[in-house]
Amino acid sequence: MKDHEIKSLHGNRRAPKPSLCRSIFTSQLFYLTLALLAFFAGYYTATSTSFSPSSSSSAAATINFPSRLAATTAAMTLPPEIDNFRVAPNCIDPIPTDLIRETILTRVYGGASPFDNFPPPHVANSLRDRKLKGWGSKGAVFRHLIEEVRPKIIIEVGTFLGASAVHMATLTRQLGLDDTLILCIDDFRGWPGFREQFQFINHINGDVMLLYQFMQNVVYSNVTDSVLPLPFSTGSTLSRLCQWGVTADLIEIDAGHEFNSAWSDINRAFRLLRPGGVMFGHDYFRMGDNRGVRRAVNLFAQIYGLRVQTDGEHWVIHTS
């Protein structure tokens, strides 16, 4: 057979018909369908919960924590996707209330009050006599909760210039709670660019005078016996207080507004609450805050079967 005849035979040969399976698996429609199925499967598993709290939004708290051990046990039984965010327990038994001031002064300030010989000479000319600025710092929730709880120890997480701390100190005195101690946790560094809004707060070589202005406000308001600053990060301070056995009857959360910050503060502070204590905070109704404070508060309450109440701009969680 000649070469041109061979080529003619091959040229007229039909290609084999593709199988049905091959047609399906090489089809763009198949891969599009597969991608859509994967998306909806992921969406379903992400939005469905694998735990069912026993309380509804209209019911009172159904879980009471008579001790830190009970709270730790409850936390250890969380589902894996939530357990990854659990704050590891590392607390000792609570110390008596009347030893808390002494414990703080000894461990943080070497036994002396930070208000002794205040202000130091190098900042005296940089301070205002009194400059209180806050957000929701005089809301009705403060009086409501102090009247209800009658706290001996209050912890404020996020203090800034001390407007709400001074207000709470004033309220406790008005209600005859002269021995109430308010511990104010804040690193007193502000945030990048905050001096654009608060230009009256001076700085020396980049060191902002926020802590000193807070202390000046406390001194001017004559509440140094009621208020003590803890000038460190919220996470490290709350953990250390737990290790020292410090507990509180009332805790206010008003530091970072991002979800991770609020979630960490709420979970760490919860370990410091005494039985029957109350935790509350600001910024529950901020625009778009279903990704920030409100999301953290709601998720925490859902996990522990607690009820979130609101009072003005504040959220409130009772533990009993």
UniProtKB/TrEMBL annotation:
Entry keyword Zinc: no
InterPro entries, A to Z: SAM-dependent_MTases_sf (IPR029063)
Keywords: Membrane, Transmembrane, Transmembrane helix
Database matches in Pfam families: Methyltransf_24
Transmembrane parts of this sequence: 20-44
Protein name: S-adenosyl-L-methionine-dependent methyltransferase
